[in-house]
Design a protein that fits this description.
Oligomer: single chain
Shape: rod-shaped
Distance between the termini: 40 Å
Order of helices and strands: HHEEEEEEEEEEE
Structural class: alpha+beta
Helix content: 25-40%
Length: 227
């Protein structure tokens, strides 16, 4: 748009110079006629056209100034839009960086139905896992992978837990420790989550779960890709 306005302005300047030359020649001719005593009829068409041309030039100049103002406003708007897009890309990129691992850190059960709170957070990129509630909340829609490992050191007890997606039980795993030893189990699942969906684990009252400083009982998850 600026290039077109520049070309129009250049053409107008050329026309202005040509008209000025023509007007000068006309004045010289009139002077020569007067000096010779020749009575020439005034050129009414030239006299009438010249003011009209200047009016048109003024109008065209006004239009060019208006186009320049509109172009400047458009450039400012485009610059703002580019900044908004870049900011959106940055925010989206941050939201897609999601991964966590937390350890139970304490012994739980038997005798309690509860949501398992994995208190010892080892990794929490994106802060989607809340150790205070034990709940993972999906920051974006996508495919997520979750995995847990359960460990129990108490003999004659059953180790087990369930994984839930929005209070829908997706998995329940258990094993019985009937020897003087330790028992452990693990499992994993891929879930399609919508933004705001929750994933967490629960323990039934007849299960028992143990943990140590070696992080034997853990809950992990991460985003595979957004959808």
């Amino acid at each position: 748009m600026m290039r077109r306005a520049t070309v129009v302005l250049a053409l107008l300047l050329c026309l202005q110079w040509t008209w000025a030359q023509t007007d000068g020649e006309n004045k010289n001719s009139e002077v020569q006629f007067e000096s010779r005593g020749t009575k020439a009829a005034p050129d009414q068409s030239r006299t009438n056209v010249t003011p009209d041309i200047w009016a048109e030039l003024k109008e065209l100049r006004h239009k060019i100034e208006k186009l320049e103002q509109e172009n400047a406003a458009l450039e400012a708007k485009m610059s703002s839009s580019v900044n908004d897009v870049e900011e959106m890309k940055r925010v989206t990129a941050d939201l897609t960086k999601v991964a966590f691992t937390a350890s139970l850190a304490v012994d739980v059960g038997p005798g309690t139905d509860a949501t398992l709170r994995f208190l010892r957070v080892l990794t929490n990129i994106g802060q989607a896992y809340n150790p205070d509630t034990g709940i993972f909340t999906a920051p974006v829609s996508g495919a997520y992978y979750f995995r847990f490992t359960l460990w129990n050191r108490r003999t004659n007890t059953e180790v087990g837990a369930s994984l839930h997606h929005n209070y829908k039980r997706m998995m329940n795993n258990s094993d019985y420790n009937d020897h003087i030893a330790y028992v452990s189990l693990s499992n994993g699942i891929v879930l399609h989550l919508e933004q705001g969906d929750e994933v967490f684990m629960t323990i039934d009252s007849y299960y028992s779960i143990s943990d140590t400083g070696d992080n034997r009982t853990t809950f992990s998850g991460f985003l595979l890709f957004p959808l």
